Amino acid sequence: GIVGTLRYAKIPVVSQLLAVIVETIRNLPLLLIIFFTYFALPEIGIEMEITAAAIATLTVFESAMISEIIRSGLNSIEK
Question: Which residue numbers in the chain have pLDDT < 50?
Answer without folding.
Answer: none
